[in-house]
Each structure stands twice: as C-alpha cells, then as structure tokens.
Hints:
Strand order of the largest sheet: 1-9-8
Amino acid sequence: MQVPESLMANEVVDQGRRRFLTTTTAVVGGVGVVAAAVPFIKSWEPSAKAKAAGAPVTQSLKKIEPGQQLIVAWRSLPVFIVNRSPAQLAALPKQDGRLVDPGSDGASADQQPKYAQNATRSIKPEWLVMIGICTHLGCVPDYVGEMKAEPFDPNWQGGYYCPCHHSRYDMAGRVYQGVPAPKNMAIPPYHFVDDATVQIGVDAEGNA
C-alpha cells in the first residue's frame, strides 16, 4: 500500500515525523484515563533497516486495555492501534450525520482495504489499526479517547484532534465536516496472527 501523494511532500512528512517522534512510545488512555504507559515489546520489532524497506511489523495486543492506544512504526509512519471500548463503539453510528464520508464510500484502494469497508473500518470491531497521519497536511493527530465535551467540540465522542489546523476524526478515523482535512485517515494492510497478535504491512492473503 502507498500513502496518498498528497501526504508525501517532503515538508509534510517532515512535519508529521517531528510530531511522531515525540509520541511514538506513548500510550494515551481512553475513556476515564488521561494517560497510561504501555511499553513497546521490542522483541516483536524488525530492524530499522527492515522497517524502512516496508517489512511487516508484528505487535502483541495483550497489554492494551479498552480505551487505550499504542503507536508503532511501519514504513517510518505512525500506526495507531486502539482497543476501542464498548462505549466508543456504540458512539460510532451516532456520528454519521456529522461526517464527510461516514461509509468510506469515497475511499480509494490505497486508503482502505476491502476488509475494512464496514461500519468500524476494521477486521475486528474493537481493534482499530490505522495510519496516524492527518489527511490535510500530514501532521500526527492527538488521540483524545475520552467521551466528554472538549474546547474544540462540545459534543465530542472520542477520536482524533489535529491541533495544527483543527481537523477532527471519530474513533474510526472518519473525518468530520467543516474541517480542513478532506478525507478519512488511511487503514494499512494488516491481519491478526492470533487473538492477541496483529501483523501490520501484509493482509491475511499475503498482500502488502
């Protein structure tokens, strides 16, 4: 899968990576949790050279609690892995009227695999696996998982906020209306090795 050309301009990637480097090892808590520390499991990670070449990244999900997010690197891009809580999942269909493309009908093949063309944009409803790049200018949005009024949205139901230019996305990475970002965030190729392990960079059929 290739990231859309609009996200690959040098100045855009540089800006996104700068923000990514400050957040790569962070796990941000979701509902009822402001922040939590879930460390990377180094034994799962390929070498830096292999990652730069686009090698798949295998990650354990065992320590990611409901409402929490883990960030891993794939092809030098941040990939958000979120264990969505039941409350976060229940709020998804309620956001459809506020979104640009709620059904991801306008998604191109390199933005969303066929197995993620559903209401949760995922293989398993509770697990969101998504490239964490804003579709406006390539920044890395903040995960704001708690479902409560925020200064940028009094009806916030959890999701992503890009402080650079105020774009907002819901808990499936679907973009809200009236923001600079033009489309939903991209879903990478991935599959579940088992119930507690995900591999990013290749799907269940072996397609990258």
